[in-house]
């Protein structure tokens, strides 16, 4: 059961800057992440450029309130046209959420175990090989650590599966869910969410949702903040692509077509902000 809130969360930069400084103050009290604190303090000080000539680059930390929305926008504009060009008029996109029950061990250990479990799926025969799913569908995979609701504190996977023809993405997603339950026998069938997206707006909403990044709050306890920071700074990538969405498999598009698709992606994204599409799911 995934409650999908993909609305744009725009805030004035000055408000985000305050969030960054509050977070930096809180992490400084912890004392365990001095580098991250330093980077937060230097992130996005755009007004100092005019006064002192100092140039501050974004810190690019996945939990930074200033960098997180920029990353989300950049990735959306990168992936939406690619998914749209594969699914086209006839193809389909399926959103899949895969979970396992909360286990003992640190958040880092649970996240690593989850990534390994996911990697095992893609080494199985129906996935690999000349006629395997890898040549027929594309996948975006994001590892997320829930911060609220039923997934609170639980590392889980979000996948967007796109196919060139009707039935392909659905078959691949069903296989992934069934195999996931097979290799993780203690996972509940009810914990796996499976949604067929309706058109570009449908998968756009899901794409925007899975790119939401990580929010950590200064109000959290020391233990919770430390566990989350450790998991977010463990060096693992947050988004991976495979099959037709892998850079090696992707076909180059014409420049004009690419420009058109990027324009369309921007339009879809803007419409989320104004309409606030209700995509809550039961
Ligand atoms: Zn930043």
DSSP helix count? 9
CATH-level-4 superfamily name of the largest domain: TT1725-like
Query: How are the strands of the biggest sheet laid out side by side?
Result: 5-2-4-3-6
Tell me what portion of residues adopts beta-strand conformation: 5-15%
Cofactors, ions and other ligands in the entry: zinc ion
Q: Would you identify the CATH architecture of the largest domain?
A: 2-Layer Sandwich
Number of strands: 7
Net shape: globular
Q: Give the count of structural domains.
A: 2
- Using the CA coordinates, give the radius of gyration: 20 Å
Topology (elements, then pairings):
Elements: E1 3-4, H1 13-30, H2 34-42, H3 47-52, H4 67-87, E2 92-98, H5 107-121, E3 137-145, E4 155-163, H6 168-183, E5 193-196, H7 199-210, H8 222-232, E6 239-243, H9 255-275, E7 279-280
Antiparallel strand pairs: 1-7, 2-4, 2-5, 3-4, 3-6
The site of zinc ion has 8 residues, from loops.
């Amino acid at each position: 059961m995934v409650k999908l809130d993909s609305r744009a969360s725009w805030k004035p930069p000055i408000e985000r800057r305050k969030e960054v400084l509050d977070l930096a103050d809180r992490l400084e009290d912890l004392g365990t992440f001095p580098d991250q604190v330093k980077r937060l303090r230097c992130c996005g000080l755009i007004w100092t450029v005019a006064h002192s000539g100092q140039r501050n680059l974004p810190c690019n930390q996945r939990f930074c309130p200033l960098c997180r929305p920029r990353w989300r926008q950049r990735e959306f504009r990168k992936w939406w046209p690619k998914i749209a060009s594969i699914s086209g008029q006839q193809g389909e996109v399926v959103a899949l959420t895969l979970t396992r029950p909360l286990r003992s061990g640190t958040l880092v250990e649970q996240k690593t175990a989850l990534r390994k479990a996911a990697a095992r799926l893609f080494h199985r025969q129906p996935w690999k090989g000349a006629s395997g799913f890898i040549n027929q569908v594309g996948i975006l995979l994001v590892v997320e650590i829930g911060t609220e609701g039923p997934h609170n504190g639980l590392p889980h996977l979000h996948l967007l599966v796109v196919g060139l023809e009707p039935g392909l993405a659905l078959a691949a997603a069903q296989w992934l869910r069934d195999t996931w339950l097979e290799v993780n026998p203690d996972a509940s069938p009810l914990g796996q969410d499976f949604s067929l997206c309706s058109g570009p707006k449908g998968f756009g909403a899901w794409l925007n949702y899975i790119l939401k990044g990580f929010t950590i709050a200064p109000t959290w306890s020391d233990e919770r903040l430390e566990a989350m920071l450790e998991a977010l700074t463990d060096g693992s990538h947050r988004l991976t692509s495979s099959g037709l969405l892998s850079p090696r498999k992707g076909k180059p598009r014409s420049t004009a077509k690419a420009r058109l698709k990027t324009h369309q992606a921007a339009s879809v994204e803007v419409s989320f902000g104004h309409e606030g599409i209700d995509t809550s799911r039961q």
